What we know:
This protein has 4 helices and no strands. By secondary structure, it is an all-alpha fold. The chain has one domain (about 5-155).
Amino acid sequence: xxxxxxxxxxxxxxxxxxxxxxxxxxxxxxxxxxxxxxxxxxxxxxxxxxxxxxxxxxxxxxxxxxxxxxxxxxxxxxxxxxxxxxxxxxxxxxxxxxxxxxxxxxxxxxxxxxxxxxxxxxxxxxxxxxxxxxxxxxxxxxxxxxxxxxxxxxxxx
Length: 157
C-alpha cells in the first residue's frame, strides 16, 4: 500500500469519526431545545459535556490528518438552546454559567473559522464547562431530594 493510499484510508476513518461525533453533538443540542422545564436538566448537561468531548477528540484526529473544519456562516452570533441562555432561570452556580457562556462564545468563534485545532480546543472548553455544571446541578438535585425526603418523613410522623 502506498503512502497516499494509507493517508486516504486514515482520512476516511477520521471522517467517519467526525460524522459520529457530529451526530452525538446534534442529538445533545436537540435534547436541550425540546426539553420540558427542568426535567433531566443535569443529565442533559452531562450528555452535552460528553458530546463536546467526543467532538474534541474527533477534531483533534481531523487536525492531525490535515483536515479543516468547514466554517459555519453566522456562527459568531448563534445562541444556545433557550434553557442554556442567560436570563432563563438556569440552575447552578453563576460562576460556572459565566464559564459556560465564555465556552459558547469561544466555540462560536472557532466554528466560524476553519482551524480544526481551534475547533477541537473550543469543544474541549465546552466539555469542561458543561461537565462542571452537570456536577453542580446533580449536587443541587441531591440536596433538594434529601430535603424533600426529610420533610415527608417529618410529615408522616
